[in-house]
Amino acid sequence: MDFGLTDEQQAIQEEVRRFAENEIKPVASEYDEAEEYPWEVMDKAAEAGLLGPGIPMEYGGAGYSPVEAAIIIEELFAADAGIGLSVSSAGFGAESIIAFGTDDQKERFLPPVAAGDAIMGSAISEPDVGSDVSSVSTRAEKDGDEYVINGNKMWITNGSVGDFFVVLCQTDPEASGRYNGFSQIVVESDRDGFQADKITGKLGIRASDTAELIFDDVRVPEENLIGTEGGGFLQLMQFFDETRTMVAAQGVGIARGAAERALEYAQEREQFGRPISDFQAIEHKLAEMHTQTEAARTITRKSAWSVENRDEQLTALASMAKEFASRIAVEVADEAVQIHGGAGYVNDFDVERFYRDAKITQIYEGTTEIQKNIIARELLE
After folding, report:
1. H/E element, 22
2. Does one domain contain both 254 and 291?
3. Distance between CA atoms of 68 and 242, rounded to whole angstroms?
4. Distance between alpha carbon 313 and the CA centroid of its chain, in Å?
5. Of the listed 14, 308, 365, 378, which one is catalytic?
6. Which residue in 150, 153, 249, 363 is deepest, having the highest Cβ count within 10 Å?
7. Virtual torsion, Cα 66, 72, 77, 83, nearest 10 deg
8. Are 235 and 222 in contact (CB under 8 A)?
9. Which residues form the Acyl-CoA dehydrogenase/oxidase N-terminal domain (predicted)?
């Protein structure tokens, strides 16, 4: 088994690390405090080819593999989770268009994202629907050659800055079977009846945009339907293994960023006439933090490899990676604050932000509890 990166992957890692050091780190606190979307950083990310990394080269993207995407996400999140999510989520929902969309849809929606001329999002969750995706009630009714959409979506990344969204809708409420009757439809944000209300006051990832979407008789042409009508739920389920793996990579990045900052601080901070890194209690904390981060990285990289190679244990492995890496992100960030002491409780140091950012990785793309359910189900089948 080869745990090393190829020369090309190492080059990608180094390039993204430089970008994160030069363009994200210096402004991370500023955007976090303002809860402001990092438009200037996004422009620079577009120039660096970091938007929509999985978009095929024929549509202007870099065509990176899942392993390479995980490497990129770790580097971005080790600098800052809020801006990291803004960059890595610019193409949310593109997977469905790539896999099931028409040639026209691919030409219309993918190149603008890769070029930084548009931002997209995936609209699934609703005010009363989180883990139970099959309870989505946003309705799309056919009227001639158009769909008329009504309903609400909640906690949507890029909600108030996005140009178009892949929206999971109920198109046939009478369909037999719990998972039938749902479709994915692209909805542009400039259509009449579409409204986005930004959500503020978030615990973390504050630079990333989150909003509630409201659809009030929004009309879209039937050519915006992705794939076949009624196949939306099954289309969506095919990508959760990949998206959960990428959240695991986010957790690895947060843990690494927190651990690196804790190590640096421990070597600089002195008590009783010597650096606190000389005390065994701190040494043990640092040792465990870095060991946990390395373990999380290993399972995440294996899951990313499995996404690329469609390994038979992928579903269980993706949930294992997501559950473990998100837990380690929270634990390592917690210890980083502890090592900083009182200084870690204020935003003079980055670990306060990492501590707040870490928690979301245990919630979105399937909660910790859902991941454990999936792992157990896969084991018992």
Report:
1. none
2. yes
3. 12
4. 22
5. 365
6. 249
7. -110
8. no
9. 6-117
Helix axes 240-268, 280-309, angle to 10 degrees: 160
**What is the per-residue pLDDT for 178?**
77
367 and 239 within one domain: yes
Its pTM stands at: 0.96
The reply to whether 254 falls in a domain is yes
pLDDT at residue 366, rounded to an integer: 93
DSSP character at residue 91: B
Question: Token pair 């909805």 is at which residue?
Answer: 187
What is the residue whose two structure tokens read 């009783």?
Answer: 272
365 belongs to the catalytic site:
yes
Sequence-distant (6+) residues with CB within 8 A of 50 are 16, 19, 72, 76, 87
Final residue in a domain of this structure, among 179, 198, 230: 230
- Of the candidates 186, 187, 183, 188, the one whose C-alpha atom is nearest the C-alpha of residue 228 is 183
Are residues 75 and 27 located together in one domain of the fold? yes
Q: State how many domains the chain has.
A: 3
Alpha-carbon span 273 to 141, nearest angstrom: 72
Enter the tokens of residue 90. 């610019």
In a domain, residue 2? The reply is no
Residues 367 and 354 in one domain: yes
Q: Do both 251 and 335 map to the same domain? A: yes
CA–CA gap between residue 22 and residue 348 (Å, rounded): 19
DSSP string for 277-299: GGSHHHHHHHHHHHHHHHHHHHH
Q: What are the structure tokens assigned to 121, written together? A: 């999002």
pLDDT band at 18 (very low <50, low <70, confident <90, very high): very high
Per-residue pLDDT tens over the stretch 258-295: 999 999 999 999 999 999 999 999 999 999 999 999 99
Same domain, 352 and 257: yes
- CATH of residue 154: 2.40.110.10
Does residue 242 register a pLDDT over 90?
yes
Range of the domain at 335: 234-380
Is there a domain that residue 59 lies in? Answer: yes
Q: Is the pLDDT of residue 134 over 80?
A: no
* CA-wise closest residue to 325 among 285, 360, 375, 361: 361
